[in-house]
Design goal:
alpha+beta; 27% strand; globular; 511 residues
Amino acid sequence: MKKEIIVNAAPNETRIALLEDEVLVELFVQRDENERTVGDIYLGKVRKVLEGMRAAFVDIGWSQDAFLHFSDIGSGALSLDNLSSSLTEDDIELDDRGRAERAKLNVGENILVQIIKEPIGTKGPRITSQLALPGRFCVLLPGELAIGVSRRVVDFRERKRLKSLASELRPEGCGLIIRTVAENKPEDLIRKDVESLHKFWKMIEAKANHSTPPTLIYKDVSVSDSVIRDLFTSDIDRFVVDSKALYRQTEEYLRNVAPNLLDRLSLYTGKVPIFDAYRIEAEIEKSLMRKVWLKGGGYIIIDHTEALITIDVNSGKFVGKKNHEENSLQVNIQAAREICRQLRLRDIGGQIVIDFIDMNDERNKRKVEEEMRRELKRDRAKTDFEPISRFGLMQMTRQRIKPSLIFTYNQPCPMCEGSGLIASKETVVIQIDRWLKRFRATSKELRLKITVHPDIYGFLTGGIKSQINQMMWHHKIFITLVADATLKIHQFQVYSYKQKRDITEDFLQSV
């Protein structure tokens, strides 16, 4: 399978796409106003201990207290897979040696914790006191004595070598996990990674000892840095980035830890936006829609509710040449593949119910389940599902760390209180910026008039360094901005003074 990572770095947003055989399967989005918090370490203060819930609430300085389950305290279940999307890849196996009893919490106690799940809806972030510091080849576990090797390292001799290395290199008072990427790597590289992580932990420990809670002790790396560190491995065929700064940063990192991957790194210099060139933009647009079409005319409908995600499979325009049972099987098999892709692409987590087309033959139900099982093996998040019930329903769960992609690109509508969605101001501004980039790739015009909704006008012109001025400087074009209350918030119109006409449609991305 051909794997590629494509990175689009813009002033207000960084987007990272993972392609498998030129098909978009995962998307990471980082915006200035919505920084990633998973992996951040705080010195907090225990506010409540609820024995009935087997949980505590910890003040980490946010508007909402963080949730700490008893299983995430001390040396209980390590939950490493929850620390970041990068760590789910490793599916860690640990020794049980040296585990201490779980510490008992008291109200008012200071505690060092790490965020393992972003706040979702009205729920605050979920945290753990079982800290983990991921490096390129290892994960350091302060306060633990356990050692482990990724289950994805299947060669017996290599597992034995890495486990022996882990025992030898493990710093005193810390546990150590060897990651998949360390397979067949020399000892000196792994040793350097361990030493670097241990030095880093000592700095964190010293800062925590001289701080007053609640306070941020350590800010984890950005999304782009974590992808470079955790996903750019030997199974990636190409890593393409359109930012010179990020290219140089990645190049320097690889020279130190993985020089064998340098020839797979490349800088995109084309005039067409990189996500347009790789046909990613249209796939992102589709990932925000309720309806997803399948080959042959079938489709699936994806709906978000407070309690769970529902996915409905429909035959639609599908016209098979066989009987109803065989036609239903074909549509369900196609739907299973697409559902697994959409779960990864949209980063859907939590409880999921899939309503497949009814099938009478139990053997056909098992075929659909096997297809789901095969496709979910590609997913780095933890998943589990039950067999298809007699009602044609499949119940499944998928690990949830942060809100789904749809909530990154949209905000609840203030008019309908969340029953519908409109494009956020940030998304509209980014769409205008992409429109200008497409326009400048083919035109030398230096003056345009852009008409927007008054809310967008205020958003673009606000602040000392307004975004409209940044756009004009970035694209080297003069823009006359006009507010029009008759436009919807997601609409904008572009008028060319040179052509004396509206040219909005000429450079809109077609889906």
